[in-house]
């Protein structure tokens, strides 16, 4: 992969919260709307023990939006320039955008259910799973 330093930063996305406390709510995320890419894959994680840290990788090309549908998820990101950002997620109408080339890890409350929208289908070659390779690949 070539060194492309035109990355963007992870950031929170607030989805519409339609409804009321008496009847409940619905939130909608559509590719090209609040989600800044066409959704090619979605998946969810659940029953993750609180002592486990998931993620521990970056992607060369894939963009993602992570949402805590229930429970609490703390998302830690590191940009190629070393900047570290932390995003606590605990509302079903707020997600975090993870652009390519961003190292990310997640810690969960036991009751957390994480929904992920991704810009591409699964491809193992798109993953950087070794932190040292991430730093070497994107170092300035």
TrEMBL record:
Residues 10-136 form the Sugar 3,4-ketoisomerase QdtA cupin domain. Gene3D superfamilies: Jelly Rolls (2.60.120.10). It comes from the Bacteria. Signal peptide: none annotated. InterPro entries: QdtA_cupin_dom, RmlC-like_jellyroll, RmlC_Cupin_sf. This is Sugar 3,4-ketoisomerase QdtA cupin domain-containing protein.
């Amino acid at each position: 992969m070539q060194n492309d330093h035109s990355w963007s930063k992870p950031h929170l996305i607030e989805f519409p919260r339609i409804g009321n406390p008496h009847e409940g709510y619905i939130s909608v995320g559509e590719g090209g709307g609040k989600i800044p890419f066409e959704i090619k894959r979605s998946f969810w994680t659940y029953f993750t023990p609180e002592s486990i840290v998931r993620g521990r990788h970056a992607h060369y090309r894939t963009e993602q939006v992570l949402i805590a549908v229930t429970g609490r998820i703390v998302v830690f990101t590191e940009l190629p320039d070393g900047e570290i950002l932390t995003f606590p997620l605990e509302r079903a109408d707020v997600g975090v955008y993870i652009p390519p080339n961003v190292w990310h890890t997640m810690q969960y409350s036991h009751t957390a259910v994480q929904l992920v929208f991704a810009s591409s289908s699964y491809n193992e070659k798109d993953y950087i799973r070794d932190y040292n390779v991430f730093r070497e690949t994107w170092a300035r």
